[in-house]
Design goal:
Blueprint (H helix, E strand, L loop, with lengths): L6 H8 L4 E5 L9 H8 L7 E8 L3 E8 L6 H7 L5 E3 L2 H8 L17 E4 L8 E7 L2 E5 L1 H8 L2 E3 L3
Amino acid sequence: MKKIKTNAARLLDQANIAYELITYEVDEEDLSAVHVAQMAGESVDQVFKTLVLEGNKTGNFVCVIPGADELDLKLAAKVSGNKKAEMIPMKTLLPLTGYIRGACSPIGMKKLLPTFIHESCLAYDFIFVSAGQRGVQLKIDPKDLIKVVDAEVCRLF
C-alpha cells in the first residue's frame, strides 16, 4: 500500500506538528462531513468541514465548523469584518484554494486566507479536517490547527 502524502500533511511535517492521516471510502454521491464521519467511524461533532466564503469588504475567508452544523452567514460576516458574506461559487473553489469540493483543507490553500474556526473545537483533544484529498482526513489537535492556519476561534452558528 502506498503512503499517502497530501500537501497539507507535508506542511504539517515542515512545521513539526503531529497529525494522523485517516482514510475512508469515498462516495461521490455524498461528500458531506456527516457521511465522512460515518465512513471513518468518528463522531460528527469532531469532523469539521472547511467552507470558503466571500465577504463584501474583506474578500475571501475560511470558516471551519463541525460537519453536521450550518454556518450562520450573518455571524461569519460579522467575525470577518464584513456586512455580508456568502459561499463562493463552486467553480471558483479550485482556482482560489487549489482544492476541490469534498477535499478542501484549511491547511495548504494557494494563499493563506483569514480563517475562523468554531469554538467547539477546543472541547476535543483532536478533530478531523480534510487532508486535501477525497478519502483522506487529518486527525489533529485543534490547537495545532489554529496555530498553523493562524485561525481565530469564535462562534459561527
